[in-house]
Sequence to fold (619 residues):
Amino acid sequence: MKYDSQPTLPAPASTIGAVGWMRKHLFNGPINTIATLVLGYFSIIFLWPVLDWSLLSADWIGTTRNDCTSDGACWVFIGQRLDQFLYGFYPEAETWRLDTAFFILAALIAWLIIPSTPRKGWVATFTLVIFPIIAFILLSGGYFGLETVETHKWGGLSLTLVLAVVGIVAALPFGVLLALGRQSDMPIVRSLSVVYIEIWRGVPLITVLFMASVMLPLFFPEGMTFDKLLRALIGITLFQSAYMAEVVRGGLQAIPKGQYEAADALGLGYWQKMIMIILPQALKLMIPGIVNTFIALFKDTSLVLIIGLFDLLAIMQASANDPNWIGFSTEGYVFVALVFWVFCFGMSRYSMHLEKRLHTGHSNRA
Amino acid sequence: MSEVQKQEDQLAIEIRDLNKWYGEFHVLKNINLQVQKGERIVICGPSGSGKSTMIRCINRLEEHQQGEIIVNGVPLVEDVKKIEAIRKDVGMVFQHFNLFPHLTVLENCVLAPIWVKKVPRKEAEATAMKYLERVKIPEQALKFPGQLSGGQQQRVAIARSLCMNPDVMLFDEPTSALDPEMIKEVLDVMIELAQEGMTMLCVTHEMGFAKTVADRVIFMDAGQIVEENEPETFFNHPEHERTQLFLSQILNH
Ligand SMILES: Nc1ncnc2c1ncn2[C@@H]1O[C@H](COP(=O)(O)OP(=O)(O)OP(=O)(O)O)[C@@H](O)[C@H]1O
Ligand SMILES: [Mg+2]
Fold:
């Protein structure tokens, strides 16, 4: 195989820099050279079939399984079912509403992420307060002549995003209150916050979802139905706010005592002090932690399939069980994994970048 | 009005038999102190003698366990409303400035007047600019604290306190975190303030400042007020041995 010998081939003169780099990092000394060769050999042995299956001998074009003739992956399956993976059973004529909502969200997030944009405070407030209302109206309809789309039709990646975004955004205010409660001078408030946080952090999300879907209805009067998605969202929010509280607590602890004292000495009340002095500073420090929590939640949302909600993973599994496409679940899993990975990797890079920026920002100030 | 009553009215701060413990540690022991309106008092003493703790009790940054503190006739008790009322009238300047780093200099100055005293923003900004001019940095109003030098930050901190129009100003070693060349610019502001008749309690080891403006110098050691006198007597004829020792240490080095 010609690929075997590639790493040891002399590089063309135009890539002297690369050769130099390889000398320095891969071939400096006999042990490193052997390690490089052995690892290189094994990665080629293992990666080659993956590459071959997923790209080189894969089928890309067509409409049915009969178009998949080679022995590589059948991406036709993904292409044919892409709409379902993205929108679930949302009526096809209405999917523009999902597109619009997520486009607005992406624009708002871009605004908040890009350092040079003005009026971040207002945009953040808009994102947290006004946008959820807009998104709710767009997604579920019933107002302004928009057709009502019931939540059992929601699914796919859009449902995954709804679960994760609502989970984080709704958990933030509760998390802040819990973290403040945990720091409170009032013993009852403090103990209640600690108990709440420790209980929720001690149970797995899957049991929370079960309880939300099976036990919650038992507490409601007979005949009263309660949207399944809403139940899941409540469960996720309650669960997530405990984690959020710990992130917020970390942020609060990083604020020097002098800031509290200066606010006190000026006669600011407790809430004025928290809202205008402490939280704005702490929130900045909390962003990396929030992003990390969000990544964890984003992946955990696929657990909702056990209570019968069709997130991206569940809907892929359902599609792979379709008699027309039986036998292509590998492609499905690879695709889902890739989608999750792209989102999570993007967020984790962003959080790393932010940590670096905050770090330098902090040492400038000291 | 009786003589006694009249004198009571003149008191900005009265501390009676103040005792405070940190756990087992008796940090303030039977402190008695009366501060007349307009009086300038300098407090000095070795590290750990309780100077900071004492002045921080006056605006309830620290809680005391025994004794009475009366500020402008209002006794300091366990009542949030009373505490906030007293804090409105008592300004404090810290060793490490404690400016709010996420707000501009101007925002630092107008925040408390607007939210605590409910002053309209326009008026608060005008007042803030007036005080920033007094501390000689009006041109920095729109900068953030992190962009200023230590001396400038401390002057902003003084202006921020003055914006609340306090009756009493507390200073806790306002110059000891500053580079030598910046100490003077802060002391000048404080001297000017003293000459305008502000009631001041100042913990400092700047003996030049004490000689220039203080009406009384108080020496604390091990949680007690050991000696108090007008600067002339305090520096030239200290009564107590501990005071003499302390003075010889800080003056000779
Ligand atoms: N929160 C606290 N808990 C326990 N002990 C404390 C606390 N704050 C201060 N102390 C102790 O109380 C004593 C007095 O402290 P204080 O800060 O009032 O001294 P100081 O005279 O201001 O000293 P310095 O000149 O170093 O500022 C010190 O021994 C200190 O260790
Ligand atoms: Mg001190």
Q: What stands out?
A: Chain A has 13 helices and no strands. The first helix of chain A runs from residue 16 to 25. The CA atoms of residues 11 and 281 of chain A lie 52 Å apart.
